[in-house]
Automatic annotation (TrEMBL), chain A:
Top-level taxon of the source organism: Bacteria
Keyword Glycoprotein listed: no
A single BP term in Gene Ontology: transmembrane transport
GO cellular component: plasma membrane
Organism: Flexivirga endophytica
Membrane topology: Multi-pass membrane protein
One Pfam match: BPD_transp_1
Protein name: ABC transporter permease
Transmembrane domains' residue ranges: 27-48, 91-113, 120-141, 219-239, 285-305
Automatic annotation (TrEMBL), chain B:
Protein name: Sugar ABC transporter permease
Phylogenetic placement of the source organism: Bacteria, Bacillati, Actinomycetota, Actinomycetes, Micrococcales
Biological processes per GO annotation: transmembrane transport
Localisation per UniProt entry: Cell membrane
GO terms under cellular component: plasma membrane
The keyword Transmembrane belongs to this UniProt entry's keyword annotation: yes
Taxonomic superkingdom: Bacteria
First-listed, main subcellular location of the protein, grouped into a coarse class: membrane
Length: 313, 281
């Protein structure tokens, strides 16, 4: 199934390379030059510079007195309880939101793929949360969870589920879960569309065959649909994990890391170290630790992805 | 037969339920934005406003209140920054994507991987050096500076979507055009681009949403109505006018309108754009 795209990648084989690729190489260089300049011209210097800053003690943007501390910043960060707490919260956020989005997204994709009257209406509605800007989404849910006049308190007490208004963003755990709810509402549609694309590429004959074999629908889902969706699910998993691990905007918009640092994720922690505490060396070291974790996660995923593709054959 | 009917009813119920869950929070924001303040702070809540109160919107369109004028300029800044970012990224990516999809050259895989790897960099890791560079070039608090850094964020995405989509355009079409005397670039514009329209629309949509949504760079690199974008303005509202949810909601509705409209219009290309993305890799 997934093979055609792959064979296209090596046209004419490697044998023809020398003469032909020279001309193509030059052309490719010129075609790619603008993209290379626009991306790496802007990104490379900061990437290197941040690595360098992470080895110095830098306490203001224009500081001149910046002693070299080697891995000192990293040592300080790694022995800081606040860092590990932030890592723990980030993992909690990442795992919970990604799992919820994947499960709900799969269900939603199935629904969008089903024979329903007015399916296009549903598809149109589903697109909305994804298009709502993250900061607007954060402000919206901050309003819903508001302790004094929030919609959630209003509806729960009107329906008699609670007598008193609750401060949903008032305790660290509740606030983190509230942020997750907001994130799931916004992101599940995107996950669903991605999985829907995967569903759409499964040929109908396979289902016909399953029907002929009198496989039950549950059985068909687990032994036909799910295995064929593995590539799409894996990509979503990688993308969502990376994104969730970097989470910043929605935290900033909803809770600013509070209460009692309860929603301070690792990117937010790096941001406050660099900008509120004015300690750029530390902030840079934390940033690099985030990069390392993301690279590790991606490597693990990509390996698993490759293995699962093999199992498909 | 009856079993099927029951399933169909259940499916439709599930669809209605899903639509409600998705729509209710958004509708709540819309209603709050036109409710009088007294309704918003009443206990128990008034779900249907006593009368429609449009003053927040009129403030923003006329720019008469402080919040209104901030928001108005933020909206204009966002439109300019997002549109320029999309236009620049699309042009640059179309050429780059053609190279990835059609040309054989050394380091092709490596280059593509490097573009994709930038996605793994957290923005926070680049903030301080970028701040220093932008201030060196006098581009802090300017739309041009913001467009530049946004492009570096958007181009890897558009490159990826377009390369994958160009791969699905049959080579024969292009070969035929070239036999007829088209150059490679001519074939790109006359054959590949028209055939790859869904991919192009998908890329435009994704890049617009990404640029419109960008927050962290705008938060750190902008400071005045010169270049402040809508997400920054909204987060300031939400921080400053904590008791005025109506104002935040009105800003939120206006800020959500452009991306929501674009997403709805281009909705059918989302899946096709992703199908191509999913088949590869």
């Amino acid at each position: 199934m997934m093979r055609p795209g792959r064979t296209q990648e090596f046209p004419q084989g490697l044998a023809v390379r020398p003469k032909k690729s020279n001309g193509q190489g030059k052309m490719a260089f010129w075609l790619l030059l603008p993209a290379l300049v626009a991306v790496f011209g802007i990104v490379i210097y900061p990437v290197v510079r941040t690595l360098v800053i992470s080895l110095f003690e830098v306490n203001s943007v224009m500081a001149t007195d910046t002693p070299f501390v080697g891995l000192g910043n990293y040592e300080k960060v790694l022995s800081d309880a606040g860092f590990w707490a932030a890592i723990g919260r980030t993992f909690y956020f990442t795992v919970t939101s990604t799992v919820l989005e994947l499960v709900l997204g799969l269900a939603l994709a199935g629904l969008l793929n089903a024979r329903i009257r007015g399916r296009w209406v549903l598809r149109t509605i589903v697109v909305i949360p994804w298009a709502v800007p993250t900061i607007v989404n954060a402000a919206l849910w901050k309003g819903i969870f508001n302790a004094q006049y929030g919609a959630l308190n209003g509806i729960l007490s009107q329906l008699g589920f609670q007598s008193d208004y609750r401060a949903w963003l008032g305790s660290p755990t509740a606030a983190m879960n509230a942020v997750i709810v907001a994130d799931v509402w916004k992101t599940t549609p995107l996950v669903a569309f991605f999985l829907l694309a995967g569903l759409a590429s499964i040929p109908n004959d396979i289902y016909e065959a399953a029907k002929l074999d009198r496989a039950s629908r549950v059985r068909t889902f687990f032994s036909v649909t799910l295995p064929l969706l593995v590539p799409s699910v894996s990509i979503v998993l990688v993308l969502r994990t990376v994104e969730a691990f970097k989470v910043f905007d929605i935290i900033y918009g909803m809770t600013r890391g509070g209460p009692a640092n309860g929603t301070q994720t690792i990117a937010y922690y790096a941001y406050t170290s660099a900008f509120s505490d004015q300690s750029y060396g530390m902030g840079s070291a934390i940033s690099y630790l985030i990069v390392i974790v993301i690279l590790l996660l991606s490597a693990v995923y990509l390996r698993a992805l490759r293995r699962s593709e093999m199992s498909l054959l | 037969m009856t079993l099927r009917k029951r399933d169909s009813v259940l499916l439709h119920l599930a669809a209605v339920f899903t639509a409600v869950v998705i729509l209710v929070p958004f509708l709540y924001m819309v209603v709050a934005s036109i409710s009088p303040q007294s309704n918003l702070i009443s206990k128990p809540p008034k779900w249907i406003p006593d009368h429609l109160d449009w003053h927040r919107y009129s403030d923003m369109f006329s720019g008469s209140s402080a919040a209104g004028s901030t928001f108005k300029s933020a909206m204009a800044n966002s439109v300019i920054v997002a549109c320029c970012t999309v236009a620049i990224s699309m042009v640059i990516s179309i050429f780059g994507a053609y190279a990835f999809a059609r040309l054989e050259f050394r380091g092709r895989r490596m280059t593509l991987m490097m573009f994709l790897a930038t996605y793994m960099l957290p923005q926070v890791a680049l903030l301080v050096p970028m701040y220093i560079i932008l201030s060196g070039f006098g581009l802090l608090d300017s739309k041009i500076g913001l467009i530049l850094v946004d492009c570096s964020l958007v181009i890897p995405f558009t490159l990826w979507i377009l390369s994958n989509y160009f791969l699905t355009v049959p080579r024969d079409l292009e070969d035929a055009a070239r036999v007829d005397g088209c150059t490679r670039v001519g074939a790109l514009f006359r054959v590949i681009l028209p055939t790859a329209k869904p991919g192009i629309f998908a890329a435009i949509m994704f890049s617009f949403l990404l640029a419109w949504d960008e927050f962290m760079y705008a938060l750190v690199f902008t400071s005045s109505t010169n270049s402040k974008t809508v997400p920054v303005a909204i987060s300031e509202f939400a921080g400053r006018y904590t008791t005025d949810f109506g104002l935040v909601a009105a800003g939120g509705v206006l800020a959500a309108l452009p991306p929501v409209i674009i997403a709805i219009v281009f909705q059918r290309y989302v899946v096709s754009g992703m199908v191509a993305g999913a088949v590869k890799e």
